[in-house]
């Protein structure tokens, strides 16, 4: 029988959608929630730390922290061809954190990016067929984008 679990981290991250028809074309930020959805079999091996689990939630949290949170938290994510934003951000000489990406940083594209960052680190230790099935990115309380395997 297959089980699914979810774990999330939150970041405060800025972005802009340069061609957007409305206010999202302006520089702004969100309290993003990056949520990993993992599927597999519950570990049955007796006496191991993960017995009765798919994967320890704290291990998932560590992966999310290293590969997402520590990259984009209190940073500005900018599309590599967004000349205006790149120019404005480069003028900040106080160690401002800018993350340049090869895509427009919409919630949809960030969900795919996050999936690609996390997927290689979800590994079955006990042969329990773990796999990352989705990354969900909540941009606002009412707006969520998901990327599925």
How would you describe the overall organization of this protein?
With 149 residues, the chain is α/β, with parallel strands linked by helices. It has one domain: 6-pyruvoyl tetrahydropterin synthase/QueD (Tetrahydropterin Synthase, Chain A, 2-Layer Sandwich), CATH 3.30.479. Helix content is 24%, strand content 34%. The protein has three helices and six strands, in the order E-E-H-E-H-E-H-E-E. The chain has helices spanning 57-72, 83-90, 107-118; strands spanning 3-15, 28-40, 75-79, 98-101, 131-140, 143-148. Strands 4-3-1-2-5-6 form a six-stranded mixed β-sheet. Helix 2 links the parallel strand 3 and strand 4 (98-101). It is elongated and about 55 Å long. The mean pLDDT is 96.
Task: Give a quick precis of the structure.
By secondary structure, the chain is α/β, with parallel strands linked by helices. It has helices at 57-72, 83-90, 107-118, and strands at 3-15, 28-40, 75-79, 98-101, 131-140, 143-148. The longest helix has 16 residues, at 57-72.
């Amino acid at each position: 029988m297959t089980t699914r679990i979810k774990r999330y981290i939150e970041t405060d991250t800025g972005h802009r959608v340069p061609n957007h028809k409305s206010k999202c074309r302006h520089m702004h930020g969100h309290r993003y929630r990056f949520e990993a959805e993992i599927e597999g079999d519950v570990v049955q091996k007796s006496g191991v730390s993960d017995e009765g689990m798919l994967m320890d939630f704290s291990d998932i949290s560590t992966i999310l922290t290293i590969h997402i949170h520590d990259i984009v938290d209190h940073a500005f994510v900018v599309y590599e061809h967004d000349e205006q934003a790149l120019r404005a951000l480069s003028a900040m000489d106080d160690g401002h954190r800018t993350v340049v990406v090869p895509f427009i940083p919409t919630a949809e594209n960030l969900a795919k990016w996050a999936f690609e960052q996390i997927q290689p680190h979800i590994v079955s230790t006990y042969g329990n067929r773990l796999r990352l099935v989705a990354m969900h990115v909540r941009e606002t309380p009412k707006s969520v984008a998901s990327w599925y395997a």
